[in-house]
Specification:
Helix content is 32%, strand content 21%. The strands form four sheets. Strands 7-12-11-10-13-15-14 form a seven-stranded antiparallel sheet, with helices on both faces. The longest helix has 22 residues.
Length: 369
């Protein structure tokens, strides 16, 4: 029988224990030095009977038992087991993204979801409830107008009119449009009594458990009546909290690999996640996926709303995390950057899209053979 170390094995320290984990099977074990040495020696397929030849100073029976235990734990795979083929495919199917992507994907698969009971609720809320929204109480504020948004047309117009824009004019964005965009995307749509979980905020975007861990920071340079600078959007108050000056737009564009959708934009919105807010209710690792989905929901709502308001949206995941986090003043651990958005008056393409070529119309022309 051939045996080999599983390709989905990682090692790490947990306090004083050395842990070996197979992220494909989501099984982890504390290991002593010899077990790790044995795993290291079995990088390639090796006959089980010949493993003891690699350790001539050890009892062959003990080596055989150790091999069987590691195989039962899923840290070794054998050529005759069903897992061997899947173990090989992991390396073949994920060649470009490396171990980090494989670990995240498999470690967040099939996570157990805790049944919502009174006992579970009591355990979760044993302590202070996290704030609904982040605030900088000592920061100077710019209250934003709470006026109805301008005529936004039909939903279908916004849906089919949405484009990702990378070129913007020098025309400033009006305070009314900017304020409407922030309120409609990031502001509260309602407040809900969630029993022991306290009051929760509802936005126009879906969010797991209405924890709304996503915060919005705004960097402005051409928004009327808003001085250029770095702000935090205070969702409850519908205001901008002043965090500091920023006029080096080339530097900001450089943080997003010099994309014109950032470099030419009159304002940029940086989305972060406050981890405490989502971990307060969701304790399993699968919530990490939910957090990324929540940011995506907000990004799409931003794009649709900007389009409805006559602005061109842009969104990107290509940015220098640490530089952006330093710029807005978050630590990258308890609060981390997830998404970068912008909007402005787009430079119109000379080629206009014709509604006759929308998918809904084109579907009627398809002929299946």
């Amino acid at each position: 029988m051939l045996v080999r170390r599983a390709k989905s094995v990682v090692c790490h320290w947990s306090d004083r224990a050395f842990v070996v984990e197979n992220y494909r099977t989501c099984r982890a074990y504390e290991m002593d030095a010899f077990a790790v040495t044995l795993l290291d020696a079995l990088t390639e397929w090796t006959e089980r009977a010949k493993v003891c030849d690699l350790f001539p100073d050890h009892d062959p029976d003990s080596i055989g038992k150790a091999v069987d235990q590691l195989r039962d734990c899923g840290l070794l795979v054998s050529g005759d087991c069903s897992d061997a083929e899947q173990d090989v495919r992991i390396g073949e199917a994920w060649p470009a993204w490396g171990a980090a992507a494989r670990y995240l994907h498999f470690a967040t698969r099939n996570t157990p979801f805790i049944q919502d009971t009174l006992e579970v609720r009591a355990g979760i809320v044993d302590g202070a409830l996290p704030a609904l929204s982040k605030s900088y109480p000592d920061a100077p504020r710019i209250p934003l107008p709470r006026r109805p948004p301008p005529d936004t047309g039909s939903f279908a117009d916004a849906l089919y009119g949405r484009r990702t824009h990378r070129a913007f004019t020098d025309e400033p964005v009006s305070l009314a449009r900017f304020s409407s965009l922030m309120a409609m995307v990031f502001g509260p749509a309602a407040f809900i009594d969630a029993d022991v979980f306290g009051t929760v905020m509802q936005r126009t975007s879906a969010c797991g458990g209405s924890r709304h861990e996503i915060e919005a920071y705004v960097i402005t340079r051409r928004v009327r009546d808003v001085p250029p600078g770095i702000y935090h959007y205070q969702a409850i108050e519908h205001s901008l909290e002043w965090l500091g000056h920023h006029e080096d737009w080339a530097q900001l564009a450089g943080m997003a690999v010099d994309q014109s959708g950032i470099g030419e934009a009159p304002f940029v919105v940086v989305l972060t996640a406050v981890l405490e807010r989502i971990q307060f209710k969701y304790r399993d690792v699968g919530a990490y996926r939910v957090m990324l989905m929540n940011a995506g929901h907000l990004g799409q709502t931003f794009a649709m709303t900007a389009t409805a308001l006559g602005l061109g949206p842009f969104q990107t995941g290509a940015f220098a995390d640490e530089e952006l986090e330093r710029l807005i003043g978050v630590d990258g651990v308890a609060e981390t950057v997830l998404y970068l958005l912008s909007a402005g008056h787009p430079v119109r393409s000379p080629v206009q899209h014709d509604r006759r070529f929308m998918p809904s119309a084109a579907l009627g022309q398809v002929r299946l053979s």
